Automatic annotation (TrEMBL):
Annotated keywords: Cell outer membrane, Membrane, Receptor, Signal, TonB box, Transmembrane, Transmembrane beta strand, Transport
Family: Belongs to the TonB-dependent receptor family.
InterPro entries to which the protein is assigned, alphabetical: Beta-barrel_TonB, Beta-barrel_TonB_sf, Plug_dom, Plug_dom_sf, TonB-dep_rcpt-like
Compartments where found: Cell outer membrane
Residue ranges occupied by any TonB-dependent receptor-like beta-barrel domain in the UniProt entry: 276-683
Pfam family, one: TonB_dep_Rec_b-barrel
Name of this chain's protein: TonB-dependent receptor
Membrane topology field: Multi-pass membrane protein
Signal peptide from the UniProt entry: 1-23
Domain TonB-dependent receptor plug as annotated: residue spans: 43-146
């Protein structure tokens, strides 16, 4: 079966749950992307997206279950995985993406925390849709694009499936063994269709290429030495012209807390390590429940209606530490805290850790009118309503670090497509964003200024536009261009909790410019070629914002970040070529090159390179898949991360990244009615430091990447 092209043009109008329609494999493969807001053929879509379908997911699962790694393997403009529970610094086109499950936001705009990448087990997914570039069709947060995890759908046949997998490190140490299992069922009756699954995964410790244990991130979150479980169910009922569907997913990931970090030395090339020792605090964990109730009707006065109500309950506990930041004289001698040391000024140091809690509610409503009055005009319009209440508190003392904050948003929108002449389609849209942030009076922690901050309810208004054109020169070649605007907020929690963001005798959140929204402009030019023997796609983009949000790690070694508001510009090229060699082989290359700068001196001119917390490395991915006549299939893939120097306004190098190359190989063999797979990640046992560790990490987060691992899996339907 031909390898589906990774880069598929997708307009800003596509979003919640696109589906793929393919022509006979004997012809040039034609892929149409449809949407619950507006469906259009590829020839009319002026943007870029990556579709990771079920076949590609299964190929990647042979070597890894880490979603960030999988996305980076197939969409190289996404940052390399940190290989941790935290996804802080993982960007798309150099900016933070909006992560969704079936259109339900998983990202936490008020207090990010870097845990939105760990909210579902990959075994529950049918495909992943990645919309590249800033856009506003789903509102808040899509500065770098949208990553939408589409969950599986019920089949007409009653069936069950079980799967098992075991991963072992190169040194075969027993504490490095990971294993997972899942069970899924699917079926339908006259009244109801249903699919459900449960999964469990136990991760051992990770080893690098030198068979040394990789260091643990006890604060932001660690995926090694952890357990995770997922429960997923989807129920649906079809009426004559409509459908009602309920989806619930509950995900829980907990670190076992059996290892402590051993501080590294970045200057002397000594990596952060780990030693078996019980953590003296609650180990980091994630608990997330996502619920969606959707209703679609195919004919209401000749229009299609799509209605979705959703909820997400999110709680993330971060690991502890012996901190000076949380020292408070009023806590001296209190039973609520545990003293673990003495600071440079004689102050007590406390064991402490924080917890993020977020509750989201929302509604998305849209109507679609196709070919209005036989004019060739298609119209999609609707309204989104969203509410997010977030707080970050301290687990030990119970103190509030980020006060309870409520973000409320209402956004009507309209999108129009028009076939101006044959093979030329114009598109345009507008979205009005009204948002209000409500925070009561509060006091920052003693170590963060000990300031009384007056609460308030600042509101924001933004009108966002998109426009595009797509021209099909001939059946094989297409050109397109588009302009899109995205809407976002800075990490509000980081702003509110730090007293340095407020000044004056009576500081108030109403006076803080750091809370101003972020509007990002994304310009894109692209070309596609789809032929019988190969496909080729290339896109150039420019992403800019006059008042962006840049993460900067504090120099105190705590691993915490502050937010800088500055102008920034990112430019890049994405390209892929896939060649079909005979009926059984696909060979391809994916390329992502990008460069980003920010304004370091507030003169409205960008002059300093964005660092690894804010932009991805340049990258080339190669792959070769082969399908044997006996249904055995193989895949070999290589990831080349290029060297990169980061320069300041004086053209001096302030940070460097030493590139590296990893190679993965896998095979899938039909056995009885199931499939046996064997995969090797980092086949050549490359010794490297991760991108994040090299460009951002300090001595406490100077982590090596994972060495060679082998995974054996078996899947059996019955």
């Amino acid at each position: 079966m031909k390898f589906k092209a990774s880069l598929i043009a997708l307009s800003i109008a596509t979003a919640l749950a696109p589906s793929l329609v393919t022509a006979d494999d004997s012809d040039i493969e034609v892929i149409t992307v449809t949407s619950s807001r507006m469906g259009k053929p590829v020839s009319a879509i002026p943007n870029t997206v990556t579709i990771i379908d079920q076949e590609q997911l299964e190929q990647q699962f042979r070597t890894t279950k880490d979603l960030s790694t999988i996305i980076g393997n197939l969409a190289p403009s996404f940052s390399p995985s940190r290989q941790k529970m935290s996804n802080t610094g993982e960007t798309l086109r150099g900016r933070t993406p909006l992560i969704m499950i079936d259109g339900v936001p998983q990202s936490n705009p008020l207090r990010s925390g870097g845990r939105s990448g760990q909210t579902i087990d990959p075994a529950m997914l049918e495909r992943i849709e990645i919309i590249h570039g800033a856009n506003a069709m789903h509102g808040l947060g899509a500065q770098g694009g949208i990553i939408n995890y589409i969950t599986k759908k019920a089949s007409s046949d009653n069936e069950h499936q079980v799967s098992f997998d075991v991963t072992v490190p190169n040194n075969l140490e027993s504490d490095g063994i990971s294993f997972g299992t899942s069970y899924a069922f699917s079926g339908e009756s006259e009244q109801l269709d249903m699919i459900g699954s449960v999964s469990y995964r136990n991760n051992g410790v990770y080893y690098d290429a030198n068979d040394e244990m990789i260091g643990v991130d006890t604060t932001q979150g660690e995926s090694m030495d952890s357990q995770s479980a997922d429960f997923f169910i989807k129920l649906g009922h079809n009426f004559d012209e409509s459908r009602l569907e309920l989806m619930v997913n509950h995900y829980n990931m907990e670190n076992n807390g059996d290892y402590m970090a051993v501080k590294g030395d970045k200057e002397n090339d000594i990596p952060t390590g780990a030693v078996k020792q019980e953590q003296p605090w609650e180990a980091a964990n994630n608990q997330v429940t996502t619920t969606s109730l959707s209703y679609t009707h195919e004919n209401i006065a000749g229009q299609q209606m799509h209605l979705q109500f959703f909820n997400q309950n999110f709680e993330a506990v971060y690991g502890g530490g012996c901190w000076s930041d949380f020292y408070d004289p009023s806590m001296e001698g209190s039973d609520q805290v545990t003293v673990c040391g003495t600071g440079a000024n004689g102050e007590s140091l406390y064991y402490e850790q924080s917890r993020n809690k977020s509750v989201k509610w929302g509604m998305k409503a849209s109507m679609i009118a196709n070919n209005i009055a036989d004019s060739g005009v298609n119209l999609a319009y609707g309204i989104d309503v969203f509410s997010d209440t977030t707080e970050q508190d301290m687990v030990v003392s119970g103190a509030s670090w980020v006060p309870e904050s409520t973000y409320e948003n209402i956004a009507p929108y309209a999108q129009v497509d028009y076939d101006l002449i044959k093979n030329l389609t114009l598109s345009g849209g507008v979205r009005y964003e009204y948002a209000k942030l409500t925070v009561d009076d509060y006091k920052t922690l003693y170590g963060y200024g000990d300031k009384h901050i007056e609460g308030g309810s600042p509101d924001f208004n933004e009108i966002l536009f998109n426009i595009g054109a797509s021209y099909q020169i001939n059946p094989s070649i297409r050109l397109y261009t588009s302009f899109n605007q995205g809407f976002g907020m800075p990490d509000i929690g980081r702003v509110l909790r730090d007293g340095d963001n407020f000044s004056g005798e009576n500081p108030s959140i109403d006076d803080s410019l750091a809370l101003t929204p972020i509007v990002t402009d994304n310009i894109e030019f692209g070309a596609d070629y789809q032929g019988e023997y190969f496909t080729a796609k290339i896109a150039f983009y420019r992403s800019s914002t006059d008042y962006g949000s840049r993460m900067v790690e504090k120099e105190d070694g705590s691993g915490s970040f502050v937010i800088k508001r500055e102008k920034s510009v990112i430019e890049g090229i994405e390209s892929n070529i896939t060649a079909y060699i005979g009926d059984n082989d696909d060979v391809g290359v994916n390329i992502a090159i990008q460069n980003g700068e920010y304004d370091s001196n507030d003169d409205q001119n960008v002059d300093t390179d964005l660092d690894g917390a804010n932009i991805s490395p340049n990258r080339v991915n190669l792959f070769w898949t082969h399908n044997f006549d006996n249904d055995i299939s193989t895949r070999v893939q290589a990831n080349f991360f290029m060297d990169k120097d980061f320069k300041n306004a004086s053209d001096e190098i302030y940070s460097s990244f030493d590139g590296y190359t990893t190679v993965d190989a896998s095979v899938a063999i039909p056995v009885y009615n199931g499939t046996l797979s064997v995969g090797i990640q980092n086949l050549l046992n490359e010794d490297y430091y991760t991108y994040y560790s090299q460009t951002v990490g300090k001595d406490t987060r100077y982590f090596k990447g994972m060495g060679r691992t082998a995974t054996i899996g078996f899947t059996m339907p019955f």
